[in-house]
Amino acid sequence: MKVRYAFLSVALVSMLFASSVAAPGSDADGEEVLYFDTYYEQLTDGQRAIYDAMEALHDLPAEGKNPEPYTKYPASNYGGIYNVTVRHYYVAESRAVLLDMLKKDADRAWQATKMDDPLAFWTWGADSGPHIDVTATGSSGSTSEFTVGIKVHYAYYNGDDTDMSQKIDAVKQAIDGFEIKGGTDAEKVRSINAWLCGDDVLYDPAVRNPGGNKQQCPYNVSAYGAFVHKENGKHIMVCDAYAAAFKALCDKANIQCKTVVGTSVQTSSIALHAWNLVIINGIVYAVDTTWNDTSGEELRYLAVGSQSMYKGQTFLQTHQAFLIYKYNTTSSANDYYYANWFNFQLPEVEKMSASGYTWKTDDDLGEMLREYAPWTIVALICIVLAYVLWNMGRKGE
């Protein structure tokens, strides 16, 4: 009898161990751990000093998060300005060259904060371009201290002391309270994408169909538009907000995610665009929640590979990272050319899967069998083994 119990105990332990090993586990089980680099790491020392000074705006008390009123003429669309002091030594051949250098470095640092940090409220509103002012101490071609002025759209700040601080707090509260469903990273990514393709979200109709009477939503590019502001019960967004929202929620779920900007190149159109990269099971995939939503096909660009095809074009052909399609004004042929936007690189493309992630559907019996077959077989083997050992033990009583 003791022998039988010993055999049964060994068999049961073996079954539990085998099942735990063979059963589906977390996304990272047995996979290489990958991490995305930030755009901060691609900046020069001077640009990093500007980036750090901008990110320090997060540390201001609530009342300090409001910008100063923008009083320069013409005020245009700006209601306020953040004046950020930066201490870093710059030297150039002339004052004009110095100021141009500072402006370009401030633009690049600003863009890096926008892609790295979806809660960078100083980037909410529009692209940097004319939104950045730079003034430097002294009058020569060198400086060790300068001020970067970041203009703020009047929709975010119009002089009310509570405007910006309340908007920032509302975004944080919305993200904190957002429920991301799923147990694995893949399930969470799909859940986030499902919300961005759901009834609460709408691609800005005035952008999708220009030329009508509708005006663009002033919040359509930011996390504020994605999580807080609604029109007729919907969050109105364009690609910047889709990408920012996706990254913000991936950050909340501790899923490695990166925002990418560049040009979308389709057979019928060319336009500026934003999308994301994400790591699932240690593999880099691309996600375009904007096109998933606007196409009505929720999984079309969800965790796709570099060579994933749609209408005869691969993902890397339709999504040109950091390349901006510019009109060639110096050519009589009226052609276009590509220019690298802010000279950022995307080394993660080399690690991208060639094919996309295989998503299970509710009726995918074959996929379910493939997923559970290994540990089911192991369990059956253990049951047979237990039966054999039980009989051997009984005969040895």
Biggest beta-sheet profile: 5 strands, antiparallel
Number of beta strands: 17
Cα-based radius of gyration, to the nearest Å: 27 Å
- The helix count comes to 11
Order of helices and strands: HHEEEHEEEHHEHHEHEEEHEEEHEEEH
Helical residues, percent: 25-40%
Basic shape: elongated
**pLDDT average, as an integer?**
83
Uncertain residue segments: 17-31, 363-368
Q: β content, as a range? A: 15-25%
* Helix and strand composition category: alpha+beta
Instruction: For the largest sheet, list the strands in their spatial order.
Output: 12-11-10-9-15
Characterize the structure shown.
It is a single chain. Strands 12-11-10-9-15 form a 5-stranded antiparallel beta sheet. It has 397 residues and is α+β, with helices and mostly antiparallel strands. The protein is elongated. It has 11 helices and 17 strands. α2 crosses α3.
Summarize the structure.
The chain is of the alpha+beta class.
Keywords:
37% helix, alpha+beta, 4-stranded antiparallel sheet, 397 residues
What is the topological layout?
Layout: H1 2-22, H2 45-55, E1 68-69, E2 78-86, E3 90-91, H3 95-116, E4 132-136, E5 142-143, E6 146-153, H4 163-176, H5 185-196, E7 201-203, H6 205-208, H7 223-227, E8 235-237, H8 239-252, E9 257-265, E10 270-280, E11 283-287, H9 289-295, E12 302-304, E13 309-310, E14 313-314, H10 315-318, E15 319-321, E16 323-327, E17 336-340, H11 365-395
Parallel strand pairs: 7-8
Antiparallel strand pairs: 1-2, 2-6, 3-5, 4-6, 9-10, 9-15, 10-11, 11-12, 13-14, 16-17
Helix pairs in contact: 1-11, 2-3, 5-8
